[in-house]
Amino acid sequence: MKFNIIDMNKWERREHFQHYDKGDNCSYSLTSNIDVTKLVCNVKQKKLKFYPVFIYIVTKAVNSMKEFRMALDKDGNLGFYDEVSASYTIFHEDDKTFSCAFTKYDSDFETFYKNITDDMEKYKDVKGFQIVKSEPNSFPVSCVPWLNYTGFNLNVPIDINFYAPIITWGKFVNNNGKLEMPLTVQINHAVADGYHTSMLFKEIQDICLFLGQ
Q1: Which segment of 72-86, 87-101, 155-169, 186-200 scores lowest on mean pLDDT?
Q2: How far from 177 is each of 35, 43, 80, CA to CA, in Å?
Q3: Which of 92, 141, 179, 180 has an alpha carbon 20 to 30 Å from 3's alpha carbon atom?
Q4: Which is it for strands 3-5 and 85-92: parallel, antiparallel or unpaired?
Q5: pTM, entire model
Q6: How far apart are CA 203 and CA 61, in angstroms?
Q7: Is 72:161 a contact under the CB 8 Å cutoff?
Q8: CA–CA dist 165, 59 (Å, integer)
Q9: Active site residue: 16, 19, 92, 189, which one?
Q10: C-beta pairs of 13-19 under 8 Å, 24+ apart in sequence
């Protein structure tokens, strides 16, 4: 879990970071539809579960861009992790609560899928808010599978220096023969601009298409 400290004297976004982190504190969320037509078909054919598959996709995409792996070290230095993993939620059907769990990311799909589905099975009936402690190099993901929404936002206090992305997705629906799913990325503006978030959406879409082959 290597942490790379950013050289503020050489960083191209130094002024942008200082403006949004110390001046006009600002975070934002963007929501866009992802085409999951081929992915859903492939997941069904292979008898896989969509939720852990999509957690893999999102985590792989996040790891492709350092802007979404940002954090502060214990001394308050800004930097980025070599690799991050997702902290995800497990829904309990009986009492309609959820619990937060964590599975370390592995770039090998089959390895990660086995590890996360094993964890989901292991903790499916364990109640409590945080049932598996996440690591510092983690970012939260969640799913709202009951609703196809057009916008989603979490009000995170800007003064807690939280730089990890918060990624949420909803129910996919058939739109003229295409399965579309809303995806929301929320991020601190100090570490990522609209360009970076747009590229993250593109990367997620590209991985969906690749895994849908």
Answers
A1: 155-169
A2: 11, 17, 40
A3: 141
A4: unpaired
A5: 0.96
A6: 6
A7: yes
A8: 11
A9: 189
A10: 13/191, 13/193, 16/190, 16/193, 17/78, 17/190, 17/191, 19/190
User: Which pLDDT value is given to residue 95?
Assistant: 96
Annotation says 19 is catalytic: no
* Pair of tokens at residue 200: 């993250």
Distance of alpha carbon 197 from its chain centroid, rounded?
12
Q: Return the structure tokens found at 159.
A: 């003064």
Average pLDDT for 118-144: 96
The pLDDT tens digits of the residues spanning 157-191 come to: 766 789 999 999 999 999 999 999 999 999 999 99
CB 156 within 8 A of CB 139: no
Instruction: Tell me how crowded residue 133 is: count the other CB atoms within 10 A of its CB.
Output: 10
**CA–CA gap between residue 33 and residue 183 (Å, rounded):** 6
Predicted confidence band of residue 155 (pLDDT cuts 50, 70, 90):
confident
> Can you read off the two tokens belonging to residue 64?
């492709």
H helix count then E strand count, the chain: 5, 10
